[in-house]
């Protein structure tokens, strides 16, 4: 959903207008002409929509700026016909942090409504008697519109339809007592039930955008639930579950060509160098390939031998992979009581961790 027409940047966060946004004013213009509205009426309605989306942008910045306070950056904010999306790099797993990041958006709308209402009250204007659409050109009408719209955005976003704000607030509250994946499953079920309700009500009442929002919520809820479950599975993955025990063993006097032939014959990535029963290190496939490319096929593998650290089988795959990336290791040894039991390859951990593997 990211990308589109860049609008502006604030606090390092870019705001984009998605290409599909043009469907919204086009729909307003089409329905306006169908109902016999004049150009001025249609432009006024489009202007009101732009005001609404101005409030939506402030809503999304509420999420983004609060996230920054918790050390979470936001890549960008994208405006779609059905609302705005703040693309946070991640959502904190601490339910309290998720709660405050999520609730910040609706609170922005509540503040906007409160300020507009206060101005109306100070000016002594009766809000209820203001003609909302017919007299929007006046200051009182505009302020009343801001009050109405932002109260509506505040209440709508509190609907517990995960992954809308209300659903995330529900997940964060449940997460204070339940495991994150279980809290997500409960929020997802509730969100999907409400999403189906949005679709049916939108189609029945002639509100197509509400039906589209329902479809979006239904799909997004399932996608996020799968991502959370995958992360939970990955966090429980141990090094011992991705251990290679059938490693090619060769003496340091073996040639590069012999080592390459032995490795590629069984599609391995490392050769373990053993000297009179003692472990000397590992030779990586990439090093053998580079040596062959330089015409060193008859050289011994001893100069290519790398000393690598050892790991415990009960260590998590994520922590070991992060260590490999940070220390630039492509493999590590697994040793129990001083005895070799296998090799852990970075490529294997990366495949197991999938998109959750830090780069």
Descriptive tags:
single chain; 359 residues; alpha/beta; four-stranded mixed β-sheet; elongated
What does this structure look like?
With 359 residues, the protein is α/β, with parallel strands linked by helices. The chain contains 11 helices and 10 strands. It has helices at residues 23-34, 39-69, 95-123, 139-157, 165-175, 180-205, 208-235, 256-265, 285-293, 317-327, 346-353, and strands at residues 5-10, 13-17, 74-80, 83-88, 248-250, 270-275, 278-284, 310-311, 331-336, 339-345. A 4-stranded mixed sheet has the order 1-2-3-4, with helices on one face. A hairpin with a 2-residue loop joins strand 1 (5-10) and strand 2 (13-17). The chain is elongated and about 95 Å long.
Summarize the entry for a quick read:
The chain has 359 residues and is an alpha/beta fold. It has helices at residues 23-34, 39-69, 95-123, 139-157, 165-175, 180-205, 208-235, 256-265, 285-293, 317-327, 346-353, and strands spanning 5-10, 13-17, 74-80, 83-88, 248-250, 270-275, 278-284, 310-311, 331-336, 339-345.
């Amino acid at each position: 959903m990211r990308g589109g027409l860049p609008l502006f940047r604030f606090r390092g966060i870019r705001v984009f207008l998605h290409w599909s946004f043009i469907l919204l004013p086009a729909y307003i213009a089409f329905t306006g002409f169908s109902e016999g509205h004049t150009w001025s009426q249609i432009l006024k309605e489009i202007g009101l929509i732009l005001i609404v989306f101005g409030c939506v942008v402030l809503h999304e910045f509420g999420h983004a700026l609060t996230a920054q306070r918790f050390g979470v950056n936001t890549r960008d904010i994208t405006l779609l016909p059905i609302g705005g999306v703040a693309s946070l790099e991640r959502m904190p797993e601490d339910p309290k942090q998720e709660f405050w990041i999520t609730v910040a958006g609706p609170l922005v709308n509540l503040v906007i409504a409160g300020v507009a209402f206060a101005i109306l009250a100070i000016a002594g204007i009766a809000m209820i008697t203001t003609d909302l659409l017919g007299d929007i050109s006046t200051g009182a009408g505009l302020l009343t519109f801001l009050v109405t719209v932002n109260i509506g955005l505040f209440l709508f976003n509190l609907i517990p339809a995960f992954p809308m704000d209300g659903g995330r607030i529900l997940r964060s509250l449940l997460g204070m007592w339940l495991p994150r994946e279980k809290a997500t499953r409960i929020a997802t079920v509730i969100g999907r039930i409400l999403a189906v309700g949005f679709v049916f009500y939108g189609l029945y009442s002639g509100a197509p955008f509400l039906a589209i929002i329902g479809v979006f919520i239904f799909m997004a809820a399932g996608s996020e639930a799968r991502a959370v479950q995958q992360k939970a599975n990955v966090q429980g993955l141990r090094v011992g579950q991705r251990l290679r025990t059938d490693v090619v063993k060769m003496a340091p006097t073996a040639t590069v060509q012999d080592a390459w032939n032995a490795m590629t014959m069984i599609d391995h990535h490392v050769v373990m160098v053993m000297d009179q029963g003692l472990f000397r290190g590992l030779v990586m496939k990439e090093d053998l390939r580079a040596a062959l490319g330089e015409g060193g096929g008859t050289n011994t593998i001893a100069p290519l031998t790398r000393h690598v650290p050892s790991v415990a089988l009960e260590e998590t795959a994520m922590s070991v992979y992060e260590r490999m990336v940070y220390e630039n290791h492509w493999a590590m040894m697994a040793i129990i009581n001083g005895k070799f039991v296998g090799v852990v390859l970075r490529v294997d951990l990366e495949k197991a961790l999938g998109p959750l593997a830090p780069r």
